Amino acid sequence: MASITELAGIVRNKAADLQQELVAVRRHLHMYPELSMQEEKTSAYIQSKLKEYGIPFTAGIAVHGVVGLIKGKNPEKKVIALRADMDALPILEKNQTGYTSQNRGVMHACGHDVHMTSLLGAAKIINELSNSFEGTVKLIFQPSEEKFPGGASMMIKEGVLENPVPSTMFGQHVLPTLEAGKVGMKPGKYMASTDEVYLTVKGRGGHGATPELNVDPVLIAAHILVALQQIVSRNAPPQLPAVLSFGRFIAEGRTNIIPNVVKLDGTLRTFDEKWRLEAHQKITKMAASIAEGMGGTCEVFIDKGYPFLVNDEQTTAKAKQYATEYLGSENVMDLDLRMTAEDFAYFSQSVPSCFYRLGIRNESRGIIHNLHTDQFDVDESSLETGAGLMAWMAIRELLHG
Fold it and tell me: Based on the domain organization, do 277 and 393 belong to the same domain?
């Protein structure tokens, strides 16, 4: 039987040999992105690759989700789950490449094409080495990460964490601030919960030249917007990271027309469920009270989204060890808290998990743009790292016993 060092070398060589195929897979997925819960062709492509690799799978979980199983020797001994998300974003891509999105107004601007490619590559490597480990690897291709209620919660409800039950789970996400060839991890709380906040301020519109005859919802909404900043600055515990931001303020009047209704849309992010609930109550009460005091009303709807994501301490310590074995300590970084959110959180709160970051940055080639932007791209050398490391983590965890 090969030693740990020898087996890591075998996985590295297989990942390197796969690089050309990985690039082709990623570019295909990038060219044909699909929005949340519309991933029909993406799912079909993934199924075709699993068939090509000789990996059995089940499709149609949470509509377009796909779950593959790779059984090693003694498959009941231990089960490891690996996850990739499938959906794209409603963004018009501005990159001019040979693989620019062909679905106008839809773009893989969050790296889900890389995530799927990495998992497919890892699946091929693991399957080819299935005689070298005991246990089973479950491959989870998940739809709808970008849209509430999130495909993770849907797949869990449909039994994705059963038959067989994983004891450990790994997920991967690209990070544009981290150089290609590197990965990053953080044990414990890592990514924030996320809620969408919708305010509808109602007054009495009219002519801008006769404000005394109106109840101005624009002014009321402005007061509410400013006052709600107190929710974090004066109500949240100072040691607790929290963000309340509004990105949409719709007042469809004119220079001399005050509208009847104004809408505000925002997001709340934090790392504590008790405070999260208190913040919901404070937002609702403050917004309604201000509106009432100024003669109007404010309807508040808070769409509760994903919980905060927590990386299991022991699992993350092992993941860091495995990554160091595979990439070298100089390529394994420690990360800080992030206020962004991920529905992998549902998995992380159900199974001891590590959700880690894959570097994709290459400044010399101008690959520097952030997630969810119309010029986002990746250094494709990261595909070899992503596929190989994910395969190694699964195999190494099974060898760990």
Answer: no
CATH of the domain at 158: 3.40.630.10
Terminal alpha carbon distance of the chain: 16
Q: Tally the C-alpha atoms within 13 A of residue 5's C-alpha that lie toward its C-beta.
A: 1
**β-bridge pairing 309-311 and 261-270:** unpaired
Pairing of strands 168-179, 79-85: parallel
Number of domains in the chain: 2
- Asked if 67 and 141 touch (Cβ cutoff 8 Å), the reply is yes
Return the structure tokens found at 216.
């101005």
Residues 6+ apart with CB under 8 A from 51: none
- Helices vs. strands in the chain: H and E counts, helices first: 10, 16
Catalytically active residues are 87, 145
The answer to whether residues 229 and 264 touch, using CB atoms and an 8 Å cutoff, is: no
Task: Identify the band that residue 1 occupies on the pLDDT scale cut at 50, 70 and 90.
Answer: low
pLDDT on residue 400: 79
Phi, psi of 70 (to 5 degrees): -120, 115
The domain that holds 264 is classified in CATH as 3.30.70.360
Euclidean distance between CA atoms 232 and 341, whole angstroms: 18
Containing domain of residue 272, as a range? 193-304
* Torsion of the alpha carbons at 275, 280, 284 and 286, rounded to the nearest 10: 30
Contact of 142 with 399, CB cutoff 8 Å: no
Joined together, the tokens standing for residue 235 give 């109500």
Distance CA 281, CA 193 (A): 16
C-alpha gyration radius of the chain: 24
- Give the CA-trace dihedral at 105, 106, 110, 116, to 10 degrees: -160
pLDDT in tens, 262-299: 999 999 999 999 999 999 999 999 999 999 999 999 99
Integer Cα distance of 83 and 343 in angstroms = 11
DSSP β-ladder status, 193-202 and 261-270: antiparallel
The Cα–Cα gap between 347 and 43 comes to 20
Select from 288, 304, 320 the last residue of a domain.
304
The dihedrals phi and psi of 24, each to the nearest 5 degrees, come to -65, -40
Strand intervals (E) in 331-401: 332-334, 353-361
Are 336 and 326 members of one domain? yes
